[in-house]
């Protein structure tokens, strides 16, 4: 039993098993799996058990999937404590800028809850009305071993309750001793420093293992001050943060079956948000989860179960943002997922799965003093409930060595409800809103149906083509449906867009339904080493897209305004291009590779003909990477066009074009690695295209965008033992 209390009034409780017992029983079976095999008796390394095949030339249909592995992730860890920023080079992905560890990924113009985001397959819904604690904020970059990004057309096995795509961050698998090694121990210590924010990070992990049992600890700590903008060197106010992560993991491997149990805590004492009217002044999240992976004679089976309890507080941590105004949320989330893969024949593979997610939320703002924010606590959402049950079936067929198809269907049932609310007082505005809301039947049930169909054709050893079409559905979140107050102050506090405006929900919002088509042409040399280029045009129509309409009387074009969430239809289309080319490969000078990517997307509300909010303008990257033995270097250029297509219904502000240069170098010798770099080499002054409105430096005045980070020297070191 796990419970928590809101404002000393009551407890929400739920019981969940941390380990699927029926799956754990299979540990006693003697079925073999594709596990790592120890080397010779004289060379006994540790073994990472992974029951999944790791074939780099997998011929299955992937859709618009990008996989980042250790070699891709390692160079980025030095420059960020924000796991979302590890994705910044992925074609089709951009980022809503937020707090120091809380950026929100965007896939082809669709962001936040429109993306299914998980850590080791487990979700973590944002408990904050400003989405200050999104899923990826709970993973430290040093713990990330692999990231899978599905953009646009996503197989139903990787989707559910999302319309943009899926992101799954995976931590490193447990380490086991090799056969005959006896007790195996290992560890790592890392530290880094970034000059712009005077950020200091430290992380480490340690593990003790036998051939069949492993236990490990990993932890991290980061402290950062306000980062400095380019050119002037002035600080971007309320961008400071501190975060601490701790996790303990135990694993058992027997007869090819793997069971992992993990528990831990994240604590964020404070995190500034330059584009919000509030800051995070406390976030404590405790979690536990269990995972099982194994193979049987009929196929493979995976199961997960999890629970997470979060206590979140907002207030002001910078005097320029005003006096105190506490805002609290508490949430409890638990669930499970089970899926199996069954080879029906040499040609056909069936995947089936079921998952359940239970989310409870209290969002209340304690009374302050004896003025307008008294004498009652303001209940934004009381006993909010959102449950989802998803089931899918997927069939993959390899018709011949060149042609593979993947089709799937999915159903997600979503049940939502919330309790009565109250305002700070019984004034006319609060009294009317409260009476109207509490009189409503607030129970909502959505029956959502998705399907996807993809085809992959490998014409020859140098060209591969994929096409896909999908219907994807997302139900509104609790704040979209149940925020109720029309008071100006309350509306300003419900804003997960970072635009400074005020929002109110709509209990009658319909689920978003997206129909997406994409096509990819992938050309490369036969060995996939000398050169490659991939071009992916994409097109999406969204029925009942959740946009925002101006409320009555909100006609101003030069100030923050009040908006009502509303369903509209929308259209998005664009093009992603990514490629690389070997520049040289010489035993004396090492290997040089040129990498490039370009992304373009446009989105429009087809009911109003207005541009959608926070669409990334044309952007691209060009990098030269060099390796020679243990030495690695890179020079990267980043360019972003002016953002001139903005959401005029929200008074969104345009941003100018800019270009940045970054350099990095590193050397690895035995178990020691040293890294250094310079971000924004020329100290360019620029605004973040998806940074939202500046509500700190501007004194909450309309017309200012958040500045990007200026020149920053970064240095880091790591030692393994």
TrEMBL record:
GTP-binding is among the record's keywords: no
Q: Name one Pfam family in it.
A: Plug
Q: Where is the secretion signal located? A: 1-38
The alphabetized list of GO BP terms reads:
siderophore transmembrane transport
Q: Which InterPro entries would you find in this protein's record?
A: Beta-barrel_TonB, Beta-barrel_TonB_sf, Plug_dom, Plug_dom_sf, TonB-dep_rcpt-like, TonB_rcpt_CS
What Gene3D superfamilies does the annotation carry?
Answer: TonB-dependent receptor, beta-barrel domain, TonB-dependent receptor, plug domain
Superkingdom: Bacteria
The entry's localization annotation reads: Cell outer membrane
The UniProt record lists the TonB-dependent receptor-like beta-barrel domain at 275-681
User: Where's the TonB-dependent receptor plug domain?
Assistant: 61-165
Q: Which keywords does the record carry?
A: Cell outer membrane, Membrane, Signal, TonB box, Transmembrane, Transmembrane beta strand, Transport
Query: Is Membrane a UniProt keyword of this protein?
Result: yes
- Membrane topology of the entry: Multi-pass membrane protein
| One GO location term (cellular component) | cell outer membrane
Q: Which GO terms describe its molecular function?
A: siderophore uptake transmembrane transporter activity
- Extract the SUPFAM superfamilies matched here: Porins
Residue positions of motif TonB C-terminal box = 704-721
Record family assignment:
Belongs to the TonB-dependent receptor family.
| Name of the protein described by the UniProt record | TonB-dependent receptor
**What organism does the record attribute this protein to?**
Magnetovibrio blakemorei
